[in-house]
Amino acid sequence: MGGLAHFLEDEGLATTQISLIRPQTENTKPPRALWVPFELGRPMGAPNDAAFQTKVLRAALALLESDQGPVLLADFDEDAPADTAAQDGEGWFCPISLPPLEKDITAGGGYKAAMEAEIGGLSTWYDIALRERGRTTMGLSGMTINQIADFICDFLDGEVPEKPSEDLTLAQTMKYAVEDLKAYYREAASAQPGHNTGRQMNNWFYGQTAAGKALYALWPIADKLAKERDDSFMKTFANVLLIPSSQKYRVAEQEA
Amino acid sequence: MVRLADLDEPERSHLGTIPCPDFDTQPWVAGGPLSERRIAMVSTAALQHRNDNPFLIGTGDYRVIADDTPDKDLVMGHISTNFDRSGFEQDLNVVLPRDRLHELAEAGEIGSVGKYHYAFMGSTDPMQMEDAARAMAGHLKADGVDTVFLLPV
Fold it and tell me: Using an 8 Å Cβ cutoff, are B114 and B38 in contact?
């Protein structure tokens, strides 16, 4: 981000920016930056909180009227409301009752049945979220949610399914299918009002859903496919892009 | 509260030690009052129209987001799985605060909002973005934009 600021200022455009990782901004030294204590992925701090977003925006734009510089790094010290709620012990929980998660789901068929049941339970809330927000962020895989579940479970059954588009490689299709799957679950789970953090959402998806468990099962399969096909992006997908680093500890838990 | 110190390893060490480019110059463009500035946004969240070609690792190119693009047509093609997307799923403004910027323009706090915004994919060496960024600067100036608000993800 700081690099882009350098290039744009060098071309004659004034810049101000949000900084999420202060050490990186200190090293890159962009002309003006507002460091914010928000989680990665939420540079304006809080979804559906116009007043808070405006406060952050005004603070970032105010740096443009300062005569300090050429390096001006200011701090926005107010935490995002969801982070404050989490600190205060108000843990988010998924308000949708899903079927109980079996401890040992071993075959693709088992995952498929479990995911179909979850998707059935989530579908009403996904539809409500879609209607109220007027949008879904799903779509890059080119598959419906049921097609995505089938696609992933085919791998867990030892098959390599057909991909829906020639424009994407198999590994790209897997990546987008996984992101679309997670988006479906999260959009449904967040349909009802309330603060939630990304970490709370991740803990729910990876810790309490069959879909999350399916992605752990997909990891070694994708890694094996990468080796068989000498596919560097598939290797990256399997080992870096499939499970967030903050959720990899669950692998040891499951093996214990 | 989410600060670098609050992240789990190995993410904390990784993010805190990512190599950053050194620049020989320190450009600093002053400007007029905010109420006269035309402002556009540049995001590194790999935002794109759902019909655009997907972002590819290490390419450093950008996608154009027309200011009047409906929210429903924007998706996030970022490669990383180590940041939150649930905020974006609930409200585009938490990543690209278009509505907030327009509200400030309507209130007269800023001059106007650019016709186009732009998105890159972070997790890319900034030097690989240089050519695209300088070309993008030309498009921004052609639109009358004099100020850019940059947002990471």
Answer: yes
Q: Which residue has the tokens 């999350």?
A: A212
Cα–Cα distance, A66 to A81 (Å, whole number): 28
Determine phi and psi for A91, rounding to 5 degrees: -70, 140
Span A94-133, pLDDT tens digits: 888 888 887 778 665 789 999 999 999 999 999 999 999 9
- The predicted model scores a pTM of 0.94
Are A85 and A105 in contact by the 8 Å Cβ rule? The answer is: no
Tokens matching residue B45: 């969240």
Whether residues A14 and B147 touch (CB distance < 8 A) is answered with yes
B126 dihedral zone (left: phi>0; alpha: psi -120 to 50; beta): alpha
Q: Count contacts between A and B (CB, < 8 Å).
A: 269
Answer yes or no: do A2 and B29 touch at CB < 8 A: no
As averages over each run of 10 residues, the pLDDT of chain B (153 residues) reads 64 72 87 96 97 90 98 96 96 98 98 98 89 98 98 97
Shortest CA gap A152–chain B (Å):
17
Give the separation between CA B123 and CA B79, rounded to whole angstroms. Answer: 8
B41 vs A contacts (CB less than 8 Å): none
The domain ranges of chain B are 36-151
Contact B129 A7 (CB under 8 A): yes
Helix axis angle, B130-142 to A2-10, nearest 10°:
50
Name the residue in chain B with its Cα closest to that of A62.
Answer: B34
Residue boundaries of the structural domains of chain A: 2-87, 108-255
For A19, the token pair is 């900084």
DSSP, collapsed to helix, strand or coil, labels residue B26 as coil
- Is residue A57 within 8 A of residue A44, CB to CB? The reply is yes
